[in-house]
Amino acid sequence: xxxxxxxxxxxxxxxxxxxxxxxxxxxxxxxxxxxxxxxxxxxxxxxxxxxxxxxxxxxxxxxxxxxxxxxxxxxxxxxxxxxxxxxxxxxxxxxxxxx
Length: 99
What we know:
This protein is an alpha+beta fold. It has one domain. Helix content is about 25%, strand content about 30%. It is built from one helix and nine strands. The strands form two sheets. It has a five-stranded antiparallel β-sheet, with helices on one face. A hairpin with a 5-residue loop joins strand 4 and strand 5 (about 60).
């Protein structure tokens, strides 16, 4: 019985780490929508109100400029998004991403 309880606790803790790690990454980002920079934080969308530095040192400016940590500059297009770790995902956001 003790072994079963321990296994259950370990499984629940493991699942909680997985769900917060992956779900949090997908919810938190900045993205270009209809020519405006928007920020997604904890699943809530709001206008981006200042330039942001991502965890890897890259920067996203309010005008849609994305500067990688190596100094390379790119302009975000509608649907492009930059995750908080600095990775960029091109293309349109899926409808499910805006929940």
